[in-house]
Amino acid sequence: MKIAFVGKGGSGKTTLSSLFIRHLAANEAPVVAVDADINQHLGVALGLGEDEAAELPALGAHLPLIKDYLRGSNPRIASADAMIKTTPPGTGSRLLRVTEDNPVYEACARTLLLDGEPVRLMATGPFTEADLGVACYHSKVGAVELCLNHLVDGPDEYVVVDMTAGSDSFASGMFTRFDMTFLVAEPTRKGVSVYRQYKKYARDFGIALKVIGNKVQGPEDIEFLQDEVGDDLLVTVGHSDWVRSMEKGLPARFELLEATNRLALQALQNAAEDSYAGRDWARYTEQMVHFHLRNAESWGNAKTGVDLAEQVDPDFVLRETPSAEVVSPRPTPTRPAPQPAWPRPGNRGRPALPAAPR
């Protein structure tokens, strides 16, 4: 499952994505975590020191290696130099899997132990002095997009991406790469403005979108979010002493996270698992090709000096299992018991919105 966390800058999406990653690891799910935000804080949120996080290998710095490996023996791609961030896989391309060992992970990923459970962490890398004034951050995020285009993952495997803030995620086709997008919104007009942008832009692409209401302090905040985002509101998130200690660099064992907050994280996992039923590999591949052709015409052909439309393999469909047309359905996950909802006039029967940490 490919999961994105998006939201306004300062909304708390990095904290929530780190908690979700910890939750998945505690449930012994294989996880690849990706920091694709211009502000690289996911590593610290997962327990690394500032110096350790700064030493993470940058995906953008290893783009030639990534391209050469993923190109494989694809006859439609003459060289790694002819690949751009949207180049789709085809016959002969190498594909990435969550649990395998490969040169991309060896060069670009580091394994963290979260309470003894391993998680692979990858990072786009921050701006360098050489980038200032001459490059945009999307040139670095392109390495993530290329990897996601070539990634084959199953229902019990997770790739969790902490995306760049605001609507910048729409500067590439990467927003269509996810089975579930969790949008973190504060109970303010500015907080829900990114939700409206995301909802509008994603409408035509079948994006599964759920809202996490963050920094909620009481029933009025929940009522505001319910009025603004409606049924897209999945859970709400309040204060957590565990998170406060974690942000001071003194995290307790994750099993000591407040029970209501663990329940909210389980609700996120349930929503992610439910989205698996809507996975459509043919549509996923078509969207990759759509954005590749747009980028080729806009700038890619001029940059590479070749017709990038020829890289599209019309007979290739990315699949979870190469020879199977139908994947066996997963069992229905066990859900936690519903919690009492905040009282709201005229909305007594609305499903509960469990609280979690910010």
Report on this model:
This protein starts with a strand and ends with a strand. The strands form two sheets. It has a nine-stranded mixed beta sheet with strand order 4-5-2-7-1-8-9-10-11, with helices on both faces. Strands 3-6 form a two-stranded parallel ribbon. The relative contact order is 0.18. By secondary structure, it is of the alpha/beta class. Strand 9, helix 8 and strand 10 form a beta-alpha-beta unit. The protein has eleven helices and eleven strands. The C terminus is likely disordered. Helix content is 34%, strand content 15%. The longest helix has 24 residues. Helix 1 crosses helix 10.
How would you concisely characterize the structure shown here?
This protein has helices at 13-26, 42-45, 50-54, 63-71, 103-108, 138-149, 189-202, 219-229, 241-247, 259-275, 281-304, and strands at residues 2-7, 31-35, 96-97, 109-114, 117-123, 151-152, 158-162, 180-185, 209-213, 233-238, 355-357. The chain has 358 residues and is an alpha/beta fold.
Fold blueprint:
Elements (H helix, E strand, L loop, with lengths): L1 E6 L5 H14 L4 E5 L6 H4 L4 H5 L8 H9 L24 E2 L5 H6 E6 L2 E7 L14 H12 L1 E2 L5 E5 L17 E6 L3 H14 L6 E5 L5 H11 L3 E6 L2 H7 L11 H17 L5 H24 L50 E3 L1
Parallel strand pairs: 1-7, 1-8, 2-5, 2-7, 3-6, 8-9, 9-10, 10-11
Antiparallel strand pairs: 4-5
